Every structure is written in C-alpha cells, then in structure tokens.
C-alpha cells in the first residue's frame, strides 16, 4: 500500500513534467503562427509608406454608429448637405498654433513618408497636414477664416484665401510648445478684445484646435444651439485625462472673450505651478482637468455619459461636449471607441494617425463624399497599430519579443511551475509517512 501511494506521488510529478516541457513548445508554435500572419513584425523597420490594412469596422449593427460596406457608407448621414454652404448665422474662425522644426541633417530615405504619389520629409509632412486641415474647413465651413499663430521667426510658405498668419512672440520649442500654445491663445484673445472695444471688427466666435483635425460638419451651430456658454471643452471617459485640449471654443462677445481669457489664464497658472514636469504633450490637459475638478460642485461622473452639459467654472459658463462627436479619434484606449457615431463632427488624427489624415483627404478629393471617407477612416488601420484585431495581434507579437528579450524571466516562470509540481509530490510523500 505504501509503495502504491509513493507511485501515485511520483506519477503526479511525471504528469507535471510533460506539461511544463510542452508549454514553451506551444508558445513557440503560437509565436511562429503570429509572425507569419502578422506580416513580419520582427523585420527591420522599413521605409514609412502609407500602407493601410483593411479591417472590420467596429460598431457594426449598432443603430447610432456609421455602417459601411467596404468604403461605401450605408447609414443615412447629413454631411453632404453642408458641402459648399454654411448653415450657421454667426461668423466663426478657427485658430491653431503651428511651428516647424527644421532638421540640420538632410532627410534620409527612412525619414520620408509616402502618401499617394507624394513623399514628404518631416517639415513637408507638417505643412501638408496643415494644408489638409485648412482644406477640410473650407469644404464644410467655407465662410470661416483660419488664423495660424506662430513664432515671428518662422516663415511659413503658405498663401491661401481666408487664411491669416499671425506672429506672436514666445518660446515655441518642442518641450514648451503646449505651454506656449496657452500663452498664444491668451495673447490672441487680448488683441481681439481690444479690437472689439474699439469696434474695429464684427463679432466672431473662435474655435481653437490642433492642426491635425478634420472638420466634417458645420461647427458654427454650437454657438446657436447652446447660446449660454462662454467657453466650450471636449470631454471623454478617461479618469486621468478627461479633457482634450485639442478643441476649445470661445464665444466672440466681449464677455465671452473676457471669461474665456480668464479661464485660460487660470489653466496657465496651474500648468506653470503644478505640471511643468509632465510630458510635453500632457501638461495642458492635466492643468485643464485640475481647474475643472477644483470647482466645488463639479460632478466628475458626468464625464462617463455621452451628453453635452453646462457648468459654472470660476466665473465662466463652460459647455462640455463629448469627444465622441466633437473630437473623435480613430481607435485608441480611453473607452471611447465603439465605432463612429453618426453625428461625428470632428476627426482628430493625433499621434501616429497623421498619415491617415493625408490619405483621407486624397480619398475625399477623388470621391467628394464625406460619408464614404469616414468609412475609409473607420475601416482602415495603420500597420504600426490600428483597429482592435490588429492592435491585439501587435500586442501579442510584442509580448513574444519581450519573452525573447528577457529569457531569464521566462525561465523563472517555468521553474516556478516545476517547483509547484514537485512540492505537490513532497506533500503527498509526507502525508504517507
């Protein structure tokens, strides 16, 4: 009987050993399969082409999401009715801060970005994105001016109708650009307030945006549909960064400009005192969130709902607009991506999505159909990342790389599993004794 029980203990060990040995082989086969299907993730980084991968569109079957068949829109949208006409009665201007950074080294082939028949170095790509930004505004809101705030030392090779370049003194280095952007917004509003007081110009509402957005609907209706706000921000369901600074609207009345300027001055103060060590692209958003959350009666749970709402922040009446409609970004985290809402008005091509912005404009130029262009954006993904299925594959491949780059950790885990099996045998033997 004793020998029989000991055999049972050793049988457990023998059963564990094949499992521990078999696991790494299974993982190796899985990795090989992923490498084959994903298209060579571990190959050397190639020249940056605008190679897009067609993938399934999220939101399929949902009644309030854009439905597509390939790049053809199946949902009924209203975008076409706004082409070449503006339904808003008030004058609206777009304001963006733009700076270029010339490289002292000639562009290498690996630094070139090819979109369609054009190849761009970094500076040329930035200018192309700025040009496309203007193009979309002139399609959907042709009566709107575009004002570019920039370093006086910059010489932007841009000559377009309805576009004004306004130099504002400041520090436009990469590390200080977000801080300078707020300063430039404040300086711009000060000049507009002065002109208003002297009755030198008509009332104009201002929408301050990043230059990597596409306006796909008439935004002038914000000021008529919500007549009681001074300043508008866009929010998302993101605990750490609920507000995106890439879209800020200010009512063009004297009171609206005063309150909008005072709000931004408070954001600048918080940024300078609390978030100077933050990442160069996050400081302003963290400062925005801090100012809003510091309001005594503000309910942060409202950020979890996809509904516009008004609140009093300091002395300003602030309108909060959902990012899902007014600052929609092709898929990422933050819990905001469940397809494209039918009422999307702004597409934000932030980060690695900028080539997709250029590709989208090329598509629209040939089709003149905004809805179909949105299907292109919805269904296509960059090979560097993309929609959920491709990002998952990329994440799995990166996990494989981490296992290979850190074999010690991988083997430690295997030895722990073996030790656990051995411990089971020891416990069995001790019980027998």
TrEMBL record:
First and last residue of the signal peptide: 1-28
Source organism of the structure: Rehmannia glutinosa (Chinese foxglove)
UniProt keyword annotation of Cytoplasm present: no
Keyword Transmembrane helix: yes
Membrane-traversing stretches: 408-430
Protein name in UniProt: Nucleotide-diphospho-sugar transferase domain-containing protein
Keywords on record: Membrane, Signal, Transmembrane, Transmembrane helix
Top-rank taxon, per record: Eukaryota
Origin organism lineage: Eukaryota, Viridiplantae, Streptophyta, Embryophyta, Tracheophyta
């Amino acid at each position: 009987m004793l020998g029989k029980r000991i055999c049972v203990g050793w049988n457990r060990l023998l059963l564990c050993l094949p499992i521990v040995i078999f696991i790494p082989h299974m993982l190796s086969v899985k990795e090989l399969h992923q490498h084959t299907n994903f298209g060579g993730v571990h190959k050397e980084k190639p020249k940056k082409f605008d190679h897009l991968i067609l993938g399934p569109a999220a939101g399929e079957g949902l009644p309030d999401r854009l439905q597509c068949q390939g790049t053809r829109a199946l949902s009924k949208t209203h975008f076409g009715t706004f082409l070449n006409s503006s339904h808003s009665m008030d004058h609206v201007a777009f304001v963006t801060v733009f700076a270029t950074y010339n490289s002292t080294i000639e562009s290498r082939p690996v630094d070139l970005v090819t979109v369609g028949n054009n190849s761009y170095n970094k500076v040329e790509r930035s200018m192309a994105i700025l040009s496309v930004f203007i193009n979309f505004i002139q399609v959907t809101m042709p009566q709107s001016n575009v004002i570019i705030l920039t370093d006086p030392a910059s010489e932007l090779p841009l000559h377009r109708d309805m576009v004004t370049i306004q130099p504002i003194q400041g520090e436009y280095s990469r590390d200080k650009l977000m801080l300078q952007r707020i300063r430039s917004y404040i300086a711009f509003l000060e000049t507009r307030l002065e002109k208003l007081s002297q009755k030198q110009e008509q009332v104009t509402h201002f929408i301050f945006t990043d230059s990597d957005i596409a306006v796909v609907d008439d935004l002038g209706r914000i000021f008529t549909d919500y007549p009681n706000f001074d300043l508008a921000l866009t929010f998302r369901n993101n605990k750490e960064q609920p507000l995106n600074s890439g879209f800020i609207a200010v009512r063009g009345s004297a009171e609206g400009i005063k309150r909008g300027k005072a709000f931004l001055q408070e954001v600048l103060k918080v940024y300078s005192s609390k978030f100077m060590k933050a990442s160069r692209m996050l400081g302003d958003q963290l400062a925005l969130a801090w100012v809003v959350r510091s309001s005594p009666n503000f309910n942060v749970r409202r950020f979890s709902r996809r509904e516009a709402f008004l609140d009093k922040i300091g002395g300003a009446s602030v309108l909060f607009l959902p990012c899902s409609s007014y600052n929609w970004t092709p898929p990422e985290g933050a819990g905001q991506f469940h397809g494209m809402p039918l009422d999307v008005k702004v597409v934000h091509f932030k980060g690695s999505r900028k080539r997709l912005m250029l590709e989208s404009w090329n598509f629209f130029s040939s089709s003149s159909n905004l809805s179909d262009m949105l299907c292109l954006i919805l269904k296509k993904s960059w090979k560097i990342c993309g929609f959920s299925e491709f990002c998952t594959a990329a994440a799995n491949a990166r996990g494989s790389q981490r296992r290979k780059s850190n074999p010690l950790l991988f083997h430690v885990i295997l030895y722990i599993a073996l030790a656990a099996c051995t411990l089971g045998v020891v416990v069995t033997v001790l019980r027998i004794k």
